[in-house]
């Protein structure tokens, strides 16, 4: 999360992302992924900047912020809401559920004092649910930022959470 | 992502060990086998385990040896030495001790029907997994890599390539089991100056991670297969759509593309021929439905992943309206071996209706979870007792779900159905993606199906009515059942919703979202009714009261 | 051409026709909601399903291209049951707060629900999910509790109007129609043409100014008076008052299209400030010098007003020459009247200074 959240920052970010991925329609989602990675979410202002660069019709359509917004709200890896410093992803799919996911979910919510989709007031944590992450062999699975934890139990949670500043 | 264990021992010996077998000396037999195995220094290569509840009373105690699935019985402790020395050490099946096929009855009858044995050393799809450095094209080439491509480009016409695939009987591993040769044929015969090959690596079916293992451990096999596909159908450009969460797979695949380009195995004039092929990675961004091939295409085109109305199918109107071949990762991974050897060779594995091997992932309440590749047609019981080393904590097996969230719920009574396309279809079970979720007696079926429907209502693209609203209504009803708030007619309502989803949805997501509901009411109706009529959850999982206000509000979508 | 059989009738249609259009050509009506002949097919609502020989499951006829020797059945008990199911599902997400919406108590969704004998009371949602009147657009009323996500508004705004204001956001059970990046319509470049309203089959988008005015007792087809395009529109009249303007697919010039002026600029008709008789400045009548602020208006008869105008124009031309005058005529006049203006400018006044607002 290094890009600047200033008007110029957004402009620069949009320019770089478009330089890297191009302006053809198949570049739209890669561009959004790039912005999301940079800011941790997609600020609406960044959408406007991207749109400005794409103001020639893409394919047979003119790309408006609305379309970018629509994409960003469809794909779960893209967020339109600002998130906390650490994103806790909890896998709520069946394989993790039957191996004890439910108890972990209860404990997670209690220990973070958050429900699904919420960010803590101090901006430290965001708690997000996700569908299967393809690590079901070691369910229940919790991912914090880039680190994946398998075979999580409610008892292990405090130690895991304490690793994050 | 963490490393994945590929279950990998050369042989497995199962000894029947129920009370009847014990009475006849199975414990002594076990001991004798263990001693012999140690004495021959095979402890690291051979697994010894027990199996219960096999039926066949007249053969006890019996010994089953995998991977050949040979059954010996009745076996005395004195025979242990011979079995270990001849069979396990020298690889010679002891013909005179084999139980004749017609005597195999009861729960092991299925072993008689199995044709084609697969020594563990001869995996097809996971042939190189864990044995080569996935980031080294040299390693791949040493292990027969790019031989199939060279052979095809220099010695075969595109039509011959397709012919060989057709002979092999390979069926799509992405879920539907469509004959691969036929699909290639259709795209090849559609006219069009521009065609595309797409590898579907979106793999978001809960419980499925076989494609990730393939991409992470052997990316070049997919590069080679896609080039072969392009050659066969007349395409010069390809995309691999890799799930956004699969960062490592993306990195390794990118590296593989670069290495192949550097060696002239991708790009213009491959191997000095007229054939050119350019390959791009497209990252997913978190949407299960994008695994559906037309949604995947929409997604590449920069749109929401809403499945198109079909027909027309991608084979004629795919990416940018051009004829497009979409194949699953595992399907493609089978292609180079088939072309390197032959279609006839491939048919030796699996069952006649479903040749080849299948990569499964197994997980849930079992002792060992992981990925394994076996011939088509093994049964659930085998999968659990052999590959997953039995149920965790000795709990009883209650149900399995095959093929991910949209798969069938299989009760204990159906666990001896061979897992191949034809047999599962007949049993009304979907083989799907090869995920095997094993749940024990502590799992509440209503709770499980509720979790599944929560998945679907969240992953539905929202385009069509039956799926968008049907999954939501079903989820609400299931929630009410777990809260003890439902009446019996809720079950009729559920069945009606299921029927609407199956018959009227635009794509497989909505259609299969109904499968777990139907299976639940087919196999576990008593358990569901107990929730409603007795007000108890037999497993004690469901709260049976309203915990939190159920009303869900629309959340604002963005913050400025 | 492709020949197929629909309900036993042999139909011949061009390639790439949808089954729905082919059925229409054969005089067979298939219930639809998300489909509209002007818009690209979507195939979302699934109300239009039909049985096609060779397919296991019912197919959405609005998105299915015809093929040679296809055999289609458009209605039977199973399909009727399917449609009932679809309508019930849609209604279970449809909340009506009970306000008078000016649509005469019906819309396309309710029409089909009644057709299939659905108990509306029982089927409708019991709680709203959205704020009623959620957008400040002065002309377009938004009540997403009635939205069935047919996307007709989205396609209308994009395909017909080229403004791309609406899009779908989120997915699954949370899918919703939003303007722009979750903003108001006007912020999302809406020009208030009302096309989205015209295409909405449920009244989720509606005409704000007409909301509580009830249903029209007659419709008068006429031509828009604002500009030279000459769009046809329908004045919805109740008690001799225009309460709403609607467009009509059959209109040769504009089809369903209208601009904000044509669709919403009708309030002048019954406006109290509207002039219905000529008025002149009092000092001109009196022949006195022009007072500061030009003084007050007096209502006069046409002859008085025209005489005065003629005298002033003549004086201007005589003193300053013909080219000191310019004439701007109006799209609100008939062709014949504009022709006369032309003659008047060039022959009577003697100038080429003539222009027209529709030339812009
Ligand atoms: C909701 C849904 C999700 C799917 N997800 C996948 C997937 O993750 N991977 C995949 O290969 N196929 C998936 N499929 C199947 C594809 O549509 C398609 O049939 C497959 O990629 C064809 O490849 P094959 O012929 O090699 O099996 C999915 C289908 C549906 C309806
Ligand atoms: S069935 Fe579900 S996922 Fe498929 S098109 Fe319909 S709403 Fe979308
Ligand atoms: S009023 Fe016209 S411009 Fe505005 S959203 Fe509707 S269709 Fe688009
Ligand atoms: S607002 Fe109207 S036209 Fe738009 S999607 Fe909803 S129901 Fe359809
Ligand atoms: S179900 Fe949790 S990682 Fe797959
Ligand atoms: S009218 Fe065909 S699906 Fe809506």
Write up what this structure looks like:
The complex is a heterotrimer of chains A (165), B (560) and C (360). In chain A, 45% of the residues are buried. In chain A, helix 1 packs across helix 2 and helix 1 packs across helix 3. By secondary structure, chain A is α+β, with helices and mostly antiparallel strands. Chain A starts with 6 loop residues before the first helix and ends with a helix. Chain B has 560 residues and is α/β, with parallel strands linked by helices. Chain B is built from 23 helices and 15 strands. In chain B, helix 2 packs across helix 3 and helix 18 runs antiparallel to helix 19. The radius of gyration of chain B is 25 Å and the shape is flat. Among the domains of chain C are: 74 residues, Ubiquitin-like (UB roll), CATH 3.10.20.740; 56 residues, N-terminal domain of TfIIb; 45 residues, no CATH class; 40 residues, no CATH class. Chain C has a five-stranded mixed sheet with strand order 2-1-5-3-4, sandwiched between helices. Chain C is elongated, with a radius of gyration of 27 Å. The chains are: A alpha+beta (165), B alpha/beta (560), C alpha+beta (360). At the A-B interface, helix 2, helix 4 and helix 5 of A face strand 11, strand 15 and helix 18 of B. The site of one iron/sulfur cluster has 14 residues of chain B, from helix 19 and helix 21.
Q: Can you describe this structure in just a few lines?
A:
The complex is a heterotrimer of chains A (165), B (560) and C (360). By secondary structure, chain B is α/β, with parallel strands linked by helices. Chain B has helices spanning 19-23, 26-39, 80-89, 110-113, 137-142, 147-155, 158-168, 180-189, 210-217, 219-233, 247-262, 293-300, 329-333, 335-340, 343-347, 380-387, 421-426, 445-459, 465-482, 489-504, 508-513, 515-523, 525-534; strands at residues 11-16, 46-51, 63-66, 70-72, 196-201, 237-242, 278-283, 324-328, 350-351, 354-355, 357-364, 370-375, 397-402, 408-411, 435-440.
